[in-house]
Design brief:
Blueprint: E1 3-9, H1 15-24, E2 28-31, H2 32-39, H3 45-54, H4 67-74, H5 78-102, E3 107-111, E4 126-131, H6 134-145, H7 149-157, H8 162-168, E5 171-174, H9 179-193
Parallel strand pairs: 1-3, 1-4, 2-3, 4-5
Helix pairs in contact: 1-9, 2-5, 6-7
Length: 194
């Protein structure tokens, strides 16, 4: 039976750096963000469902989802974010379950920033949270996505606090330091997990 290790953290905490490293050393990653993009792609049932609720103008002229427009709606209105999750989660969940069931590996990593928020933690045997200082998180997000302080804060506040995620996790990786320091924590952790 495949062991599922959940990998989570807040936006811009370094979770992707950890995920990329685990990929590079051969772990199978089920990336919930990539699945989300897939189930919201041009012509998909997920995109049709989103447009039915948020309006056809959420779709660009080329038929793709206008992610920037949708983001500005859902990250400024919690009820709209809840509704988006309600609409799209069944598509994502079904694909995550399919990939876990079809995995031939002893260990699979379920990479999901909203692992707890969407209840995916119930699929996991262990959970790793990647955390960093709140000011560092805000700074990284502003730089990465060219956001104002207010926009970054709004996106950060749309997710569970890092402290709560850490408390509910089996393991915690502190990404405040360099990428190499973060990787060293991952190596040490996975030497103990395997």
């Amino acid at each position: 039976m495949t062991r599922v290790i959940g990998l989570t953290g807040g936006i811009a905490t370094g979770k992707s750096t950890v995920s990329e490293y685990l990929t590079s050393v051969g772990y199978e990653i089920i990336d919930a963000d990539k699945i989300t993009h897939q189930v919201q792609s041009k012509g998909s049932k997920g995109l049709e469902a989103i447009a039915a609720f948020f309006g056809k103008d959420i779709i660009k002229d080329d038929g793709e989802l206008n992610r920037q427009k949708l983001g500005s709606i859902v990250f400024n209105d919690k009820s709209k974010l809840i509704e988006l999750t309600r609409i799209i989660d069944p598509y994502i969940r079904s694909e995550v379950i399919r990939r876990i069931d079809e995995s031939k590996n002893d260990v699979v990593i379920l990479d999901a920033p909203t692992l707890f928020e969407n209840g995916y933690h119930f699929m996991c045997d262990d959970i790793i949270s990647v955390v960093c200082d709140g000011n560092e998180q805000e700074k990284r997000l502003m730089e990465r996505d060219s956001l104002s302080k207010e926009e970054a804060d709004s996106r950060i506040k749309s997710q569970w606090p890092l402290k709560i995620k850490a408390e509910l996790s089996t393991y915690v990786i502190d990404s405040n330091g360099s990428i190499m320091q973060t990787r060293n924590q991952v190596v040490k952790l996975f030497n103990n997990i395997d």
